[in-house]
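FAQ: What does the model actually see?

It sees only this:
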Amino acid sequence: MKISLLKVVAGCAVVLLPFLLVACAESGSVDDGSGEIYDRVSALAQQQEDEAALELIERTVLFDSLESPRAGTASLLELKSRLEERSGRYCRALETHALLDSCCSDQLPGPVRAGHARSYARLLADFGRHRQAADVLLGLGTLSHADQLYLARWYERSGLVAEAAEVYRRLLQARHPAAKLDAASGLLHLSCAYGGDTFSRPAVYAVRTIERARKLLDSPGVASPSAVMALRRAARSLLEAGEYSADASYLLFKALSHARRSGMEAAVALLDGESNAVLKGDPEVYDRTMSWFQGHGMTLPWAMMTVRQSEEPGLERTERLELLRKGVRALSDELPAGAAGPTADAFGTAVGRLGALLAESGMYSELFRLDEEMRCREIVDLVHRKEAFSLSGQDIALQKRIAGISRDISALQRRAVRYYETGDGIERLDELGELVSRKRGELNAALTGLGSRYAFEAEKLQPVPVTAATIQRVLRPGQAVLKIVPAGPWLTVYYITHDTVRVTKSGMTAEDFLALARLVTGHLQTGGELGIQTLARHRARLELSEAVAGPFRAELGDLETLTVLSSVPLPVQLLGENRYLARDLAVTYLASARELLWDARHGREQAEERRISFVGADSLALARTLKISWPGDDIVVTWRPYEEQELDDLRVLLLMGLQNGRGLEQVVKEQAEYRRGSGGAEWMTLSVFGAPGAGR
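And it is asked to produce this:
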């Protein structure tokens, strides 16, 4: 009995419709490229007529059974996946690869089958599915030098650091000097990033990396692209280890020389800029390389070089500030939300440096916007990962199309980051940039077509930072917002009411703030029922009270409700000088002003039956996802562990309190006040996650 082709490919959530089978037998097997249909498709592909080629495949390549696909189906599906990938349709290409892998990839000739597996694995990695990508690559059996490098990186991104190290150790036994160098520099990177008992000190691997680099420089194949980029990767690992800038500079200089000899134009520009940034810092070289990048549409390396130039000593503050602004703005546009790896780390560092400069310079409005931009990137990542974008039933096809375009953009951006970090494919960055621009145009057109009916859903995919002035318009007398922004050596706190904005800046570093917040939350998590009772004199609580709430003591005494905006989990209701703030006012919690505005507008879109969800303080990403997905639901953050029965009892009491039409935050405060001395303190370990009064 034949099984019809109806398959959902994980990760893209798109149903593949059954293909109808049309025989191509009159032109012979298509596997060797001799079939008439294959020839016609190939001719269209060579003429860059991808749309026509894909349409011809979908009309002709066709089978009605997974058990017995016809001759030629595999070759045409393999060609289809390449055309889809070339045109930026990564979701569709991934589906086609998965289909080919499940039904007939064994019909492909050996080299073509290996190429399919490599393309499939790299696409999976572009979608962030690194473990699955590694499994597909391992199916090849014999792995090349490049395969093993990808495998190690994907293991690392999957959290399998020991497995990544094992791949590098095996690669040390390779014959080619470039492979040996990549293995040594890979181990150096892992030792710097993870340390622990698994690795020796970074200095040990640094010496081995330098030794392997010397052997590569003495070998006859040193001018090959793989050798040039191995030298660059080794230099990057040495810089990561610190104290090896002279060795890194030398390797970059030698790589630059060999790239020039081999005519690697894009690599020459990249290495010219990077070698200059390590030691010389010549402004003319910066200008030359960045002009080249701009002229060739290579925005990602241009942005990274701009950030590197902002680190040069001797710059005026205004010049440093402008360089950081440009670099951060470009990186925010080029990097996918939720990106991880060296480039994403550099972006985070640049954002911290820009924030510190803005705070130091008193540019508080711009600092507010910068922090909101970062929170908006987190929102986009949550929407993509948790599939929080949804339309009604009759528009499900449009929902899938929009979600697919969004995933295509993220995958294209991840591939661009891979090209930049590894150096392999650096010359194709401009092509990827053009595809991203085209896809963004498609997304904008699709979202515009949604109209006012789905305005909130469209905003989820393209959230816009909110200003303090916008927040003021949704606040009533008696309500205030406390926004906490740690940046470099400064902790900036905004106090916003309907008619006032006050800002204070203290000398608490971002690292200290994060550490103190963790101490407070950790004390509540591990202190059991006595946690809140012993928190009052805790050093971390007292220091945070002084820095966060202390400057606004007088104003806080006149409030009914305070909403805290912070990307760092912190139970602000338990701060205060002589008594907890929760004793005197209701406190709600959110991560960003954008989410506050959304909840103030949409939080009253209540379901017929009111629902209350409890989320642990260590799972605030889940709370954000729930609130974005179902703004009408009530969410309560628990700052200490609760048993299920305790939460059920709390839910009943809260639902009873809501029957009088009050906000959930007022019910929590009244319960704490009503039960003072008999469990009331436990109610202060609850925070309503939402805007004040939302959900009524």
